[in-house]
TrEMBL record:
<feature type="domain" description="Histone deacetylase">
    <location>
        <begin position="35"/>
        <end position="180"/>
    </location>
</feature>
<dbReference type="GO" id="GO:0040029">
    <property type="term" value="P:epigenetic regulation of gene expression"/>
</dbReference>
<dbReference type="InterPro" id="IPR023801">
    <property type="entry name" value="His_deacetylse_dom"/>
</dbReference>
<dbReference type="InterPro" id="IPR037138">
    <property type="entry name" value="His_deacetylse_dom_sf"/>
</dbReference>
<dbReference type="Pfam" id="PF00850">
    <property type="entry name" value="Hist_deacetyl"/>
</dbReference>
<dbReference type="InterPro" id="IPR000286">
    <property type="entry name" value="HDACs"/>
</dbReference>
<protein>
    <recommendedName>
        <fullName>Histone deacetylase domain-containing protein</fullName>
    </recommendedName>
</protein>
<dbReference type="InterPro" id="IPR023696">
    <property type="entry name" value="Ureohydrolase_dom_sf"/>
</dbReference>
<dbReference type="GO" id="GO:0004407">
    <property type="term" value="F:histone deacetylase activity"/>
</dbReference>
């Protein structure tokens, strides 16, 4: 068909899209024990990418630690210091859902910095797209509160960073989750359009 022909022509001209991949073993050091959000989540993804040989098709992007200045684009300075202090004391529970270990603060810096590096790679045309496989996760973290397994709001930080460093008018954040997130808390609403893409599963018993 015409669509297939156009697709083949496009593929010849475009060759293969270059996909960046952010990952570092430091993300496994965020030790949450048997918590639902644990290191096995990333290990399973890495295992699948290696087993299917998809990993070798990706362009590695080395993460870096986000600076305090970058974290402060979204978070309160006292909150940032609090996360660091709790980690330095060996970790503990921040709320009913969120726990950190002694290495969690460093891992969180590299999680936020990894998403920034992915953003930079795309904006600088080093890759066509990028996937940041990082943890701790971030989309529930608010200005001054950890929430829902999340410490620093990685996506919001990278968004604010991109708006400040590149000539962008707005950024669309697509958040796929089963409930509302805090991904745009304290991110300028005049600069960002956020599309909360909610996924709802409704299981019903079929009538006989």
């Amino acid at each position: 068909s015409g669509i297939i022909e156009i697709g083949l022509i496009w593929r010849k001209e475009r060759l293969i899209m270059k996909v960046g991949f952010v990952y570092d073993p430091i993300y496994l050091k965020h030790d949450t024990g048997q918590h639902p959000e644990n290191a096995k989540r990333l290990e399973a993804i890495i295992s699948h990418l290696e087993r299917t040989r998809l990993k070798q098709q990706l362009t590695p992007i080395r993460p870096r630690a986000a600076s305090i200045e970058e974290l402060s684009l979204v978070h309160d300075g006292h909150y940032i210091s609090h996360i660091q202090d709790v980690a330095q004391r060996g970790g503990g529970w921040l709320d009913a859902d969120t726990v950190i270990s002694s290495n969690s603060y460093e891992a969180a810096l590299y999680a936020a910095g990894g998403v920034i590096k992915a953003t930079e790679a795309v904006m600088n045309r080093e890759v066509d797209s990028a996937f940041a496989l990082v943890r701790p996760p971030g989309h529930h973290a608010t200005y001054e509160q950890a929430m829902g397994f999340c410490l620093f709001n990685n996506v919001a930080i990278a968004t604010k960073y991109a708006l400040a460093n590149y000539k962008l008018e707005r950024i669309l954040i697509g958040d796929f989750d089963v409930h509302h997130t805090s991904v745009t808390i304290h991110v300028e609403p005049c600069s960002i359009e956020c599309d909360q893409c909610q996924v709802a599963c409704n299981l019903r018993k079929r009538s006989p």
